[in-house]
């Protein structure tokens, strides 16, 4: 900005410096010449009149300011001196020609003027020159003399005129040069002016910028002042906090010392307590070991007792269950059934002929699924203890076999199979605490028309039953799935029942015409006692036990196969009870399959399901007779006591 300010005076002084020198020189030259030509006084005065030869810088400025007009004026001023010369020339020419045609008065009038002026100039010219002796004035008639005098007078004038003319030409050329210089100066001036304008604009912009920056600066100063105030406030706060911190540090060191002291005291106390606790713990561990061995002993005692109880109950237990009439049977006449006691059932026919059967337990229609399962619970424990358990649901079609085994949809109506699984996994959990680890596997199959079908395999495969002394009975290509929870079991059972339904051409019919076998493989290992138990639970929903007489021709073969297998089952159980040398297991697929589960250390339970309807009396009697046969052979002393039948 300072540069911009200082530039304008510099420019002006530069303009003076550059243009003044030639002008001054020109003036000086003119003045010099005018001095030498003393008789041209008016000429010397002319330039000063227009200021061209002035030495003052202001004159130059005005000349530059006036531009071309000024220079032209000067030239005109110079040339305006021409009348003096012209008048002299005219006079001289007139003398030369010597023609007195011009009237004297007019000539005199014309001559008088320059004469006066020359004469006026003379005293100035001759100030420093000694005056020459004036020649005598010729007589008025002596024209020659007068002429000579005139010639003498005007000859120097002509010379002066020539010189003046030459000077004028020089001045003119000088003026032209000056003019061109002026023009270039003007151009230069314009350039400088435009530059000056640009610089002025720039200066203005800079000024604006400066002002805005100044405003910004002021604002920043204000902000800075505010920040400073805040900073001061923070500083005072920090000081207060520092003081507080110092106090806290002091408190902390005091507390730390106290804590250290307390900690050491506590450590001593705790160490003493810990030593005491360790001592007690050792004692308790000893006790625990003792308890464990006692528990193990108790466990084996419990198993022995359980075994004794089961033996007392009989290895083959037969339960009888009468189902209630279902909705569509309410209008039908019911069979005359009398529940004599919890083990005795009495039936009367239309002729009031009485038949009484005693089983291990008789369940009337109102008996719940839970009541029925109470008798079954002991068998689940036996399976965990390494026994093979078989549970059959026997009875005519629609007597309630599937309901007994599977149950209904609600929790209270679930049957033997789901309840067994619940109990099994709950017992496994308990036994784990006394060192038993169990693995559980499951398989689902059905025997329809003496053919085995794997219910966990969607695509039918050929299955054969094999018997191996070491392994027992196995079924080829049968899928045996390991399970870790009841949930997994339910998922597999759902799949099995779905495949069973898909395979059936007539769902309801085939369901009742095939034996459905659910087998649970239970392996237990006790890592402490190194005992291993391998048991199994065979839960069988047998095919409907219809007599061949009631079957249609289409179903005859099915019925024959069913009856053959059911009769074979009865025969096998009878032979086992009689401890016969030969047990005819291979008489049917069902008995062959259950060979390992029925013989040896096996436990069997049969639930004979009967219909309450009078129309089913004949089939009901057949079922009860079959169950009696199975039950009766197993009982020794109690045999007679448990079986009374007027029908025999
Ligand atoms: N104890 C019971 N309480 C209530 N309803 C029962 C009972 N037993 C059976 N039912 C009902 O009786 C009907 C026939 O029972 P279920 O299907 O179990 O007979 P089933 O012997 O298995 O027949 P199928 O041989 O055709 O399979 C079913 O509707 C079932 O719900």
UniProtKB/TrEMBL annotation:
Q: Which cellular component, as a GO term, is one annotated location?
A: microtubule
Residue ranges of region Disordered?
103-140, 165-193
Per UniProt, subcellular location reads as: Cytoplasm, Cytoskeleton
Q: Does the keyword Nucleotide-binding apply?
A: yes
Question: What SUPFAM superfamilies does the database record attribute to this sequence?
Answer: P-loop containing nucleoside triphosphate hydrolases
* UniProt: ATP binding residues: 395-402
The record's keywords, sorted A to Z, are: ATP-binding, Cytoplasm, Cytoskeleton, Microtubule, Motor protein, Nucleotide-binding
Q: Which domain of life is it from?
A: Eukaryota
Q: Which InterPro entries match?
A: Kinesin-like_fam, Kinesin_motor_CS, Kinesin_motor_dom, Kinesin_motor_dom_sf, P-loop_NTPase
Molecular function as annotated in GO:
ATP binding; microtubule binding; microtubule motor activity
Signal peptide positions (record): none
> Boundaries of each Kinesin motor domain copy?
315-633
Biased composition range(s): Basic and acidic residues: 115-128
GO biological process: any one? microtubule-based movement
Entry similarity comment: Belongs to the TRAFAC class myosin-kinesin ATPase superfamily. Kinesin family. KIN-14 subfamily.
Record-given protein name: Kinesin-like protein
